[in-house]
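lol forgot to send this yesterday, sorry. struct tokens for the thing we talked abt
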């Protein structure tokens, strides 16, 4: 299954009164429906683009996080018991 990503149309408009740019964002499916308009606060069109990118970044960072899947707990291993040496005991000592 392929995930579909919304394609927003964003237009940057020069406000004649202030000489600054504003951004208008339109609905992805209903192309004529204006979703939002920023204030005319960007000194250039490039600054307006960066401002809109920052708006999206901030919005994405505030999305609710997906719940983490519970991982099965691993059984703790018991410490290995010390093994006794199985040397043959001899009654004679070497000198």
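and heres what i got for the seq, position by position
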């Amino acid at each position: 299954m392929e995930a579909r990503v919304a394609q927003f149309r964003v237009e940057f408009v020069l406000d004649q009164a202030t000489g600054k740019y504003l951004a208008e964002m339109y609905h992805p499916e209903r192309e004529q429906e204006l979703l939002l308009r920023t204030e005319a606060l960007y000194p250039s069109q490039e600054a307006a683009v960066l401002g809109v990118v920052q708006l999206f970044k901030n919005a994405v960072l505030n999305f609710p996080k997906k719940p983490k899947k519970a991982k099965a707990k691993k059984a703790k291993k018991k410490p290995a018991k010390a093994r006794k040496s199985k040397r043959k005991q001899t009654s004679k000592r070497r000198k």
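The two ends are 81 Å apart (CA to CA). anyway ping me if u want another try
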